[in-house]
Design a protein that fits this description.
CATH class: Mainly Alpha
Radius of gyration: 21 Å
CATH topology: Amino acid/polyamine transporter I
Number of helices: 19
Number of domains: 1
Number of strands: 0
Structural class: mainly alpha
CATH architecture: Up-down Bundle
Order of helices and strands: HHHHHHHHHHHHHHHHHHH
Length: 449
C-alpha cells in the first residue's frame, strides 16, 4: 500500500507539514493568554528552554520510530512488539486525535467566522455568536470540509502542498501585524512585559504551565509525529529537520506575543484576560484602532490558517492507520472518518448556549473542567488522554524498542546526531518520562498547584 501511503517529496515539504501540524491555535490563541496569566517574559524563557530540552528530544523519538517502521503508531508498535498491549499507546493516539479534532474544529470554525465579523465591523456579543446553532454547525462543517479536501489529496499532493502554501502566508501576515502593533502609541510597555523577564514571578505553577505549553504545542503524544516520520525517506536528516520544526513552532508563538502584548498595552487592556483574549478582548481592541476592521480580518485569517494546518494533521492520524492496517483506500476512508468526527463534534458545537443539556453537561467535576461539553472534551482528550498516551509512547520507544535502536535510526542521514546521542538517550529514558508524569499530576491538580 505504499502508493496509498506516499512519502514527503522534499525535506522542505516535510518541515512545513510537521511545523504546520505543530503550529495551531495553541501558539496564537492559547500561548498569549498563558503568558499573560504567568507573568510574561519569565514564562517565555522557561517555555523556550523546555521546547529544546523536552519537546525536541521527544519529537525525535516519535520520528525515529515512524521512519524505522514506515508505519503509523499502531502499526509501528505492533511491528516492534507484535500482539502486545503496548499497542494501546497507538490506539490512544488515534482516539485522542479524533476527540481533539471534534472540538478543535468547532473553535477553528469560530476563527473563520470572525474573519467576516471583522470585515463587517460586527461587535455583537461573542456569547450570542457561539450560541447560535446554525452559525456554530455551519462554521464547524466548513472547517471540517476544508480539512477533509486537503487530506483527501494525500501526503505530497495534499498535506505537503498546502503546508508549503499556508505556512509562508501565515508568516507574512504575522510579520505585517507585528509591524502594525508595534507602531501603536504605548506599545512599548507591552514589549517590556513580554521581553524583560522578572524571575521572581516564577512559581511551580509557572513551570508546569511552561512545560505543558512546550510539550503540547509541538503536537506530541498523539503518535502524529510517528505517522509523519513514517513518510520520511532515509535520505532526509531528521535531526536538523526536527530542530527547524521545533524552533519554527516556538518562533511563531513568540511572534504572536509580539502582536498581542504591544496591542493590548497600547489600548490599556489586561494581558491576563484568559481564553477570552482573542475572541472577546481583541475584536473590541481592533474596533478602536485605525483600519481595525481590516487588521482584525487579517488576524483571524492568521488564526484560521494556523488552525487548518493542525486539523489536517489530526485527521491524517486515523486515516493513515486505516490505510496502513486495514488496506483501505484513502479516497474513501477520509470522508467516512471526517463524517464520524463531524457527528461526534456536534455536541461540542451545541454546548456554548444552544442546547442546555450540552452546555451544562458536567460529567467531569468543576474543579477540573467547566461544565460545557466542549470544555469537557478538551480536558478528556486534549489534557488527560494526550498526556497518558505520551507517557506510554515515551516508555515504549525508550525502554521497549530501545533508545539505542532509536538513536541509530536518527543517525541515518545525520552524522551530527551522534555527538548528541548520549545526552538524548538520558533525556528520553529518564528525564522526559518524569516530566510527562509531572504534567499529568498537574492536570489532575494532584500537585496542589
Amino acid at each position: 500500500m505504499q502508493d496509498e501511503r506516499g512519502l514527503w517529496s522534499s525535506k522542505f515539504g516535510f518541515i512545513m507539514a510537521a511545523a504546520g501540524s505543530a503550529i495551531g491555535l495553541g501558539n496564537i490563541w492559547r500561548y498569549p493568554y498563558i503568558v499573560g496569566e504567568n507573568g510574561g517574559a519569565a514564562f517565555v524563557v522557561l517555555y523556550l528552554i523546555f521546547v529544546l530540552l523536552i519537546g525536541l528530544p521527544y519529537m525525535l523519538a516519535e520520528f525515529s520510530l515512524g521512519r524505522a517502521t514506515q508505519l503509523n503508531a499502531v502499526g509501528a508498535i505492533d511491528k516492534v512488539k507484535p500482539g502486545t498491549k503496548w499497542r494501546i499507546a497507538g490506539f490512544m493516539g488515534i482516539i485522542t486525535s479524533i476527540g481533539i479534532l471534534s472540538f478543535y474544529g468547532v473553535i477553528a470554525g469560530w476563527t473563520f467566522g470572525f474573519i467576516f465579523k471583522s470585515i463587517a465591523a460586527d461587535t455583537s456579543d461573542f456569547g450570542a455568536f457561539i450560541a447560535n446553532p446554525l452559525i456554530e454547525i455551519g462554521l464547524y462543517a466548513v472547517f471540517i470540509l476544508m480539512t477533509t479536501l486537503i487530506v483527501y489529496k494525500g501526503v505530497a499532493s495534499g498535506i505537503e502542498k498546502w503546508s508549503k502554501i499556508l505556512m509562508p502566508v501565515l508568516l507574512l501576515i504575522i510579520i505585517g501585524l507585528i509591524i502594525y502593533a508595534n507602531l501603536l502609541p504605548g506599545s512599548s510597555a507591552g514589549l517590556e512585559f513580554y521581553l524583560l523577564p522578572d524571575f521572581s514571578k516564577i512559581t511551580f505553577k509557572t513551570v508546569l504551565a511552561a512545560l505543558g505549553q512546550a510539550f503540547f504545542s509541538l503536537s506530541l503524544g498523539l503518535g502524529l509525529m510517528v505517522t509523519f516520520g513514517s513518510y520520511i525517506p532515509k535520505s532526509i536528516d531528521i535531526f536538523s529537520a526536527a530542530i527547524i520544526i521545533a524552533l519554527t513552532d516556538a518562533a511563531i508563538a513568540i511572534m504572536a506575543g509580539l502582536i498581542i502584548f504591544p496591542a493590548l498595552f497600547a489600548m490599556g487592556e489586561n494581558p491576563a484576560s484568559g481564553p477570552a483574549l482573542v475572541f472577546i478582548v481583541f475584536p473590541q481592541l481592533f474596533m478602536q484602532m485605525p483600519g481595525g476592521a481590516i487588521v482584525g480580518a487579517f488576524f483571524f485569517v492568521l488564526l484560521s490558517i494556523a488552525a487548518l494546518t493542525s486539523t489536517m494533521s489530526l485527521l491524517e492520524v486515523p486515516v493513515s492507520y486505516l490505510v496502513d492496517q486495514k488496506n483501505l483506500k484513502r479516497s474513501k476512508i477520509v470522508w467516512l472518518v471526517a463524517a464520524f468526527v463531524f457527528i461526534i463534534g456536534l455536541p461540542s458545537a451545541l454546548s456554548q448556549g444552544s442546547v442546555d443539556f450540552f452546555t451544562n453537561f458536567g460529567l467531569i467535576p468543576l474543579s477540573l473542567s467547566p461544565p460545557d461539553f466542549l470544555s469537557q472534551m478538551s480536558f478528556i482528550f486534549g489534557d488527560m488522554f494526550l498526556t497518558i498516551g505520551a507517557l506510554i509512547l515515551c516508555i515504549f520507544i525508550a525502554w521497549v524498542w530501545g533508545a539505542d535502536k532509536a538513536a541509530r535510526e536518527l543517525e541515518i542521514g545525520s552524522p551530527l546526531f551522534a555527538k548528541f546521542a548520549p545526552l538524548w538517550k538520558i533525556l528520553i529514558k529518564f528525564v522526559i518520562p518524569i516530566v510527562v508524569f509531572v504534567i499529568l499530576l498537574g492536570i489532575f491538580k494532584i500537585s496542589g498547584v
